[in-house]
Amino acid sequence: MVQPCLCLKQETRLRITFLSGFLTLIFLFNLGYAQPMYLPPSEYGKAQVVIPEAQIIRRENVFGQAPAFEPILDFPVGSLYWQIAQAVGRLDMLIEQGDKRFSIFCTATLIAKDMAITSYHCLPGYDPSMKVVGAQLRMDYLSGRLNGEPFEVGLEPLEQNQDLDYTILKVYGDPGLKYGILPLKVREPVEGEKLFMIHHPRGNPKQLTRGNCELYPAFWR
Fold first, then answer.
1. Is 50 exceeded by the pLDDT of residue 88?
2. Which of 27, 36, 55, 95 gives a 20 to 30 Å CA spacing to 1?
3. 105 strand-pairing partners
């Protein structure tokens, strides 16, 4: 029986995030690998967006083995990755900076029927000149033919921590009742645990990224 969870260390810092290895990479891998992609405001709210050629994410091997990105749609219904992926969605944001507007994408995960967790660097972000004026969580975006379902997201965080780089947001329409949730759980990490990430790289349909990644003791001690 699969019992995925997101595990957070209480008190002052994140000990490790765990969702059968998933959210560890959501928080950490995104910080080091993902670069902001700014699109015209007209792309906000669309499932399939027009990405400039220079910003299209390639399928190069980022871990030393191919493929770097595996579509969730390719996994059997009911498999481990498929089950965990149900609660993961694409966070679409409309950004205002002075007299300019643009759209960006991140990934967020449902942790309650009406709450999702994402990275602080996504929302509200580290640049005070950038203001999020619109946000949607698009669930079940799997391919060009399966555009998923958008849910409005509250712009005021329910909880946030800049040092730990996380934000918890209100999601309207109770999407967790339909797509499930990944509950929070506190526990110690286990050395050698395999890690993987389910995400929407640069707004693309939901993907799995994995490789020879595992927990290294010096990371959390």
1. yes
2. 27
3. 92
Question: Helix, strand, coil % (nearest 5) of the chain?
Answer: 15, 30, 50
CA 199 to chain centre: 5
How do beta strands 159-161 and 88-97 pair?
unpaired
**CA–CA–CA angle 109, 115, 117 (5° rounding):** 40
- Long-range CB pairs of 50-54 (<8 Å, 24+ gap) are 51/202, 51/203
* DSSP string covering 81-132: HHHHHTTEEEEEEEEEETTEEEEEEEEEEEEETTEEEE-TTTTT-S-TT-EE
Report, in angstroms and rounded to the nearest whole number, the Rg of the chain calculated over CA atoms: 17
pLDDT digits (tens, 9 = 90+) for 115-130: 999 999 999 999 999 9
